[in-house]
Specification:
By secondary structure, this protein is mainly β. About 15% of the residues lie in helices and about 35% in strands.
């Protein structure tokens, strides 16, 4: 797998998730809590993984999580996904997070990125081949 190139402008594709950050999402210093962003990254990765496996998927790892800039209350945050790899039982998803500052103002900042690996599982939580429907 090759290293992704740094992003210099927001993608033009439709994000997996878009959300306005609210005061309930803040940490003790007044910016958006990193755990809130991580939770949305996890959801966005699952949405992307379900394009390849319609049944249950679970997160097994989040790698290379880089927080590049803070997110503030009122920012419109977009979670863009792309599948990087499909293995026998796993799907690796790249998630790039962009924040349009202060209620959709003009400034858009690449705030976070992560690589998430999801595994397809059956009802007993055992790995199954990607795409297996039974």
């Amino acid at each position: 797998m090759t290293e992704p190139q740094p992003l210099v402008q927001p993608p033009t594709d439709i994000p997996a998730i878009r959300r306005v950050m609210m005061p309930r999402d803040t940490n003790a210093v007044g910016t958006i809590f990193g755990g809130v962003i991580l939770s949305e990254i996890d959801l966005a990765a699952a949405i992307e993984a379900h394009k390849h496996h319609p049944k249950r998927v679970v997160t097994v790892s989040m790698d290379k999580i880089d927080f590049k800039a803070p997110v503030f209350v009122g920012d419109l945050v977009s979670f863009h996904t792309r599948t990087e790899r499909i293995g026998r039982t796993s799907i690796t998803v790249r998630v790039d997070v962009w924040s349009q500052q202060r209620f959709g103002g003009a400034d858009t900042v690449h705030v976070t990125e992560a690589t998430v690996t999801m595994v397809a599982v059956d009802d007993a939580m055992r790995p199954v081949p990607v795409g297996q429907l039974d």
